[in-house]
Structure formats: structure tokens, C-alpha cells
Structure of Glycogen synthase:
Amino acid sequence: MQLLAVASECFPLVKTGGLADVVGALPAALAGQGIGVTTLIPGYPAVLAALGGAEEARAWPDLFGGPARLLRGRAAGLDLLALEAPHLFDRPGNPYLGPEGRDWPDNPIRFAALGVAAAMAAERFDLVHAHDWQAGLVGAYLRLNLRRATPLVFTIHNLAFQGQYPAELFSRLGLPPEAFSIEGLEYFGEVGFLKAGLWYADRITTVSPTYAAEIRTAEGGMGLDGLLRSRAAVVSGILNGLDTAEWNPATDRHLAAPFSAGDPAPRAANTAALRTRFGLAEGAVGPLCLFVGRLAWQKGIDLVLDALPALLAEDGQLAILGTGDRALEARCRAAAAEHPGQVGTVIGFDEALARLGYGGADAVLVPSRFEPCGLAQLCALRYGAPPVVARVGGLADTVIDANEAALSAGVATGVEFAPPVAEALAAALRRLAVLHRDAVGWERMRRNALAADVSWARSAGRYAALFRELVRG
């Protein structure tokens, strides 16, 4: 079976978040299931540079205002199709944001072009797998313009990002008039890219079973719960995984000292290096906690700051790494200034430092208000840092809470709390400190975390079964 994956980013070529990690890791995971994957992504400068001597697969004299080519090649171990369209994608930096940190005004046209290219390329494949709103129009162009029935799976990585634009955009998309209706792109009087992806897909997946249930409720559906309930028969949740060869504490060059589940002792050198990098004092007896990710309301960094007194009262420490909302960045800097040696803040995206953090922290805080799957807690488990997580979405599906039953059975891998509010997080941090003081019990939980299966093996099998069912059908 040959599958065309369509996405706006793909690790290691271009990455702003977990979407890229998933798109980059799935091809190798599916290869073990006998499924060949070619990934179609925009021809950003870094992508074209990596492709080198690619061959032309298709050309357009005018694709939304300029010439474009579809290039076929191989880079970073991936079979790729890259949409070379300089007027749309030849821009430095973040693939979605301009120099002032705002969305490029022509983002809907840029990703409509991606949809056109994917629909045209689909004729060579058995199945199309489209990811998130940027690939939301693939089905519309495939079904309405080309009249093709190629099976289409659409995966939601985060329902909060919907690609919603004014109705005036529709006339520029080249779709038939009937597409702008409730049975199509129309979404509260505007054009909805994610809505279109959900409408035209044969199957809808999201990245954890719990999140698949949450988005069909009024509380979690963000305006799309009615559509998702109406299509409940084709909605499912398949957990994300990690590329465990890439994320491997035994071989990770970013660590001060590699370690493994069989020999975790060298991990202490990473803890010392982490304290140095964040300006944290030696000798604290409480847990050294790490927050790494977007500084945003969704991710709950404000809850961490509000609950900070509970951690510091236990002689704990906090390292914060991330970038995002300016007001939250300022709060993080202020916390570090107010509590020198106890709180350290680095504003920015630094994957090497993040990996050192996973390999050196006692615990990783993931207090998201909602979380489709989350990769931070998977990385934390892989690197032996029991995560403290809100009981939502994929966090609930991947962490075994250290309650009395789990501790008695010897299977706990972290701490869960609910609801996602500061008071509940503070209680979880106090519980974490109690667990941390029990050296034998803590080491058992750390070893459980290191032994947790966070690979793609099981989930790749579920994707493969879904794909085969569609192709047979």
C-alpha cells in the first residue's frame, strides 16, 4: 500500500510543535506494517535545501498567483513531495508567522495551494492521510474538483487551531459554489479549513482516545462538537508515540551523561548540569521540576506559577523553558528574579536544552487545560522523569497515577490531578514531594517510567488496520 501524507511541517526538516514529530516519525513506523509513505509538505527554504537534486513531478504555470512545481526526492530518510512555490513559501523563519510574530495574511491561500497539490498528487496513491487545518482542503479539491474517491483519513492534532477565514476568501479558492454550505466549507458564515477536513474525510482520527471523546462534547468541541457527534461512527483516537531511536537517553548527544533503564545512575550528572544551566542551587532536597513547552493558557504555565509556593515550601525547584504569550513570559522571568536559586527561566525554543531537562529533572509538569495527546509527558517517561499531568486528553491515556492501588501494584509512572486548576496542581505537587522523599518508592516509579512503552509500535498497527480497512472498502 502506498500512502500520501499531507502536512505543513515535518521533523527534522521544519518543526514548530508536535505535529512535525508525528509526521516525521509515522513513515518509519508504518514501513514495519508494509505501508510505504510519501510526505507532501510546502517547499520552505529548509525543505528545498535538504532535497537537493529532486525531480519535477508536476508543474503549474500559475498556482494562486505564481508558478509552482511539485518536486519529488528524498531527505532525512523520508520520501518527499515538496510544493515549490516561491511566492507562497520562500520566506525565512517560522512557517506560519511573519517577522512581527503575526500570521502571514495569505496563509489561507498558501495552504489552499497545498490542498490543490495534494489532490492532484493523490492519483498515484492508494490512500491520503491529511493532518490538521493546513491540509483541510485536500478533501474538497479531491471530491469536488477532481471527482476522485481516493480514501481520505483526516487527523486532528489540536481542535483549537481551525483555520477560519472571512467568507470573501471563498471566491479565491477555485471551488464550486455549492462547496460554501453547511455540507462543506461554511462554518458560522465563514470559510473553515478544519471544518472542510472533517466533512470530506472518510475517517477522522485524533491523537488519543480520551481526546476523541472530549471533542464530541460541548465543553471540548470548540464549536465543532455537533459535526463530530454526527460523524461519531467514523471518529477514533489513536495515541501518538515517540521515535524511540531519536529519543533515546542511552544515545542522546545532548545529555551530559547518557543512561538507560538498566543503568540509570549516570542520570545524576544530567541533574547537576540542568541546575547549572538554569542557575539553580545545589543541595535542595525536594523535587527538581521542569516545565518545557509553549507559554500559553492551554499549556497551564499560569497554573504552575500560581501553585509555585506549594513546590517551594517542599524545598523543590523549578526550571522553565519555553516561549509564547508575552505576559506569561514576563511572569516566568519575574518568578526567577523573585526566587533566585529556586526558579530558573530560559525564554526560547532550545531542543538540546529540553532534552537535557528531560534527562535531568526529577519530574516534568504538564498541567494542560486540554491536551489532544501531548509529547512532553512521553519524553518525560522515556527519560525517567515521572510526569505530573492534568487528567485530560492524551495525558490521562499515557500516565498511570501514583494512587494507592497503583503504588501497591508497583505500576505507577507519574501523578495525575483534576480539575486543571492551581489548587489541584498545588495538591499534586505536595503529593509529588511525599513520593520523592521515599527513595525506594521513587526509584521504582522512575524505573516504571523508563520502562513505559511510548513507541509507535501499537499505534502504527492501529493506523495500518484503519488504512487497510479503507482501501479494501
User: Anything to note?
Assistant: The chain has 18 helices and 18 strands. The mean pLDDT is 97.
